[in-house]
Amino acid sequence: MAPQQKSSVELVPHRPPSSATRLFTWDEIQANTKQGAPGRENWLVVGRKVYDVRSFCQRHPGGSRILMSHFGEDVTDAFEAFHVNKSLVKKYLNPLLIGELAPDQSSLGPSKNESLIMDFRELRTTIEKMGLLKPNSYFFMAVFLHILLLDAASWLNFLYFGTSLLPFTVSVALCTMSHIQASWFQHDLGHLSVFQKPKWNHLLHKFVMCHLLGASANWWTLLHSQHHAKPNCHSKDPDIDMHPVLFALGKTLSVELGVKKTKYMPYNHQHKYFSFTLPPLLFPTFFQYHTFYIAFKKNYWVDIACMLSFFIRFFIVYGCFLEIKSLLVFFFLVRMLESSWFVWVSQMNHIPMTIDYDKNLDWVSIQLQATCNVDHSWFNDWFTGHLNFQIEHHLFPTMPRHNYWKVVPLVKSLCAKHGIEYKCKPLLTAFADILRSLKDSGELWLDAYLHK
């Protein structure tokens, strides 16, 4: 493995700028930055340096929306969190540099907890020195082989045992498990350099996401980066875009819908219809359409070709044994089970937490208020792809999942020092809390709808 990049976060007092450097105040930065407005500057601050990213937005690999959601803010910690090869990224940043913060200006800007962030940056430096951001390639190769074996076992089960009800059910289970493990593996590949050469990591990510799962790798990168940047922030986190079309989420947003007399759905019953709508139908309906829509819209032709290869392979491989009606039932069952698992596992960490408008909080605060953990056990770790450690994953997105449990005591210590609640629950409690939170927000909507 290549040596870990030294942290570029500035942990010491900043050096005085040269006399030729243009200096900015936070008032000036925020007054001259307005999301999407023509003629306005699109400024970001990284390590006290001010960058105008207007010309770079559309070329940003993580999409323009993630940059737009941070205009006028200090993004030093987000920059550290998302980029593995910081030296390469700085080559793109350098031409965009327009100045620095004035010496009398805070490094973080308004509404940020400077003491918390300084302690967090020290923690990140400690974690880097401990080597906890270095992935174990052998671990991920084992995961990859596990996926291929499950996929092969699903096909071999039909070959040796036929297509009666029991073998059909076993093959559905094996194929679903293969897809579930592939979902988490592509998630690993999308967040960090699992292998020494980034090119191989990129190609393997595209192979797993497009060919093994039938979805666009670039589509996933766009949506997931936005989710991590501003989790549970309305209009900035695509994972909660189901508000208000299907569900009323969060206390503030639910009351707001009620006051406006908005009623797309009977939200006071959303805890009842959640289980048989979003979990089983997200993948077979919305995601299946949306991934192709975005891929065509943004001309991801390589992704589209690889996605089509998934469907060709799937229907040829299983078409050897199943008639067309049984084949479609098989495909839809796998997609429904995969979707149900994904929604329950991914949303147990987020829906019960704070969902609101972006309040321009510091990196640590926004991640902790939007995430919670589920108890550590061999089953929970395997079943959730180690994302029962959602707090650690959101604070350190490029940390390999086999190291999450090692950093838990350090994160708990940070939270205790600053009086921040570190939430961790049993698995079934986390599932139940999804329904409880939906019921609470639905009742808040109904009360506001009827009486305000």
UniProtKB/TrEMBL annotation:
Q: Where is the Cytochrome b5 heme-binding domain?
A: 21-102
Could you tell me which PROSITE patterns the record lists for this protein?
A: CYTOCHROME_B5_2
The protein's matches in InterPro entries, at most eight in alphabetical order, are given as: Cyt_B5-like_heme/steroid-bd, Cyt_B5-like_heme/steroid_sf, FA_desaturase_dom, Fatty_acid_desaturase
Question: Which Gene3D superfamilies does the record cross-reference, listed alphabetically?
Answer: Cytochrome b5-like heme/steroid binding domain (3.10.120.10)
Any one Gene Ontology MF annotation carried by this entry is:
oxidoreductase activity, acting on paired donors, with oxidation of a pair of donors resulting in the reduction of molecular oxygen to two molecules of water
Q: Name one GO cellular component term.
A: membrane
Q: Where are the transmembrane segments?
A: 138-158, 273-293, 300-321
Q: Give the UniProt keywords, A-Z.
A: Fatty acid biosynthesis, Fatty acid metabolism, Lipid biosynthesis, Lipid metabolism, Membrane, Transmembrane, Transmembrane helix
Pathway(s) of this molecule: Lipid metabolism; polyunsaturated fatty acid biosynthesis
A Gene Ontology annotation in the biological process aspect, one of them, is: unsaturated fatty acid biosynthetic process
Q: Which PANTHER family match?
A: CYTOCHROME B5 HEME-BINDING DOMAIN-CONTAINING PROTEIN (PTHR19353:SF87), FATTY ACID DESATURASE 2 (PTHR19353)
The identity of this protein, by name, is Acyl-CoA (8-3)-desaturase-like
